[in-house]
Amino acid sequence: MSGKLIVISGPSGVGKSTVVSGVMAQCDTLQFSVSATTRPMRPGEVDGKNYYFVDHATFQAMIREEKLLEYAQYVGNYYGTPEAPLNEALAQGKDVLLDIEVQGALRVKARRPDAVLIFMLAPSFADIEKRLYGRGDTAPALVEERLNRARWEYTQAPNYDYLVVNDNVDKAVSEILAILTAEKCKTAERLSYLKEDN
Amino acid sequence: MSGKLIVISGPSGVGKSTVVSGVMAQCDTLQFSVSATTRPMRPGEVDGKNYYFVDHATFQAMIREEKLLEYAQYVGNYYGTPEAPLNEALAQGKDVLLDIEVQGALRVKARRPDAVLIFMLAPSFADIEKRLYGRGDTAPALVEERLNRARWEYTQAPNYDYLVVNDNVDKAVSEILAILTAEKCKTAERLSYLKEDN
């Protein structure tokens, strides 16, 4: 049986990367989908692990050759999901986790209605403001831009299948693992068990 | 927010009671719905805990006065779910588990589409045969009757939301707990978190 495609999005400041790392660490059947991006590599990042770092021409070629399941522009850079490795993992029965922004997530859902969309929330919107301002290293104008984007993202959250509130990292991690387990228990996934000669 | 109504069914010989006990032991927010029945009390059973044991006249009155969410006849006896205690628990935000047979479960789903229906399966149908014959204390004709009923129940399983395979009690228990967690993460259950002034 083919694996499940799990898509996680959440606004900047919601603590998503910590939760996603926790999920990946606790689920060895889950494969992380590495995105391609045109943004420059940051210190500590590894090509092919955090992202596939490519130049604009290469990214445009990937778009043209339809090698991306989805792509979007964010703060002047392209981000996209290479489709071939993802299909390969799913066909092998592995579940695949995509950590992508909202536009991309909704495109994935449109193209693959069986994808499971999880939106990560802060306990309250005020927490996002607090976290973004609290970082202290971001220009106020940029914080405002991120807050505006977070507000827009919240308006899209009702299109997701699940909402996970990050009021506690362990709880958020276990909720996402529970969602993955439950999705694999859905009747449509297990009809083969109902054959009497199974 | 009101609690979730979880309905579990499964054919005789699937090991459902052990799994249900495991679920109840591990989830203290979950309340077990005690059914009313006209069948005689068995040694070790407690009135009001295993069942509410009532006579036929009382059961008929409960039907007439619409005090039952569902009821069904099984091997000559009536079984039904008293609605008032269930509504009370749900209103208090408690989740309620119903362990009822297939006809009743489908009636609950028809009346309450937000109920979550879980069907418990054996790893294979041959396991049910093995377990029912293996008990050794049941007349072959009765075993055949139960097997026929199990076959019919399997035909109804696609109407359930989830299928849980009891190939391992701990795994089955944790799958049911995961389903409960995931159901509470569904977007419709958590829309209040999306209000900016939340």
From TrEMBL, chains A, B:
Cellular localisation: Cytoplasm
Keywords of the record: ATP-binding, Cytoplasm, Kinase, Nucleotide-binding, Transferase
Keyword Transferase carried by entry: yes
Protein name in the entry: Guanylate kinase
InterPro entries the record matches: GK/Ca_channel_bsu, Guanylate_kin-like_dom, Guanylate_kinase, Guanylate_kinase_CS, P-loop_NTPase
Chief subcellular location: cytoplasm
Gene Ontology molecular function, alphabetical: ATP binding; GMP kinase activity
Organism taxonomic ancestry: Bacteria, Bacillati, Bacillota, Clostridia, Eubacteriales
Family from the record: Belongs to the guanylate kinase family.
Binding site for ATP: 10-17
EC number annotated for this UniProt entry: 2.7.4.8
Entries under PROSITE patterns matching the protein: GUANYLATE_KINASE_1 (PS00856), GUANYLATE_KINASE_2 (PS50052)
Limits of the Guanylate kinase-like domain: 3-181
Gene this protein is translated from: gmk
Entry GO terms, CC: cytosol
Role noted for this protein: Essential for recycling GMP and indirectly, cGMP.
Enzymatic reactions: GMP + ATP = GDP + ADP
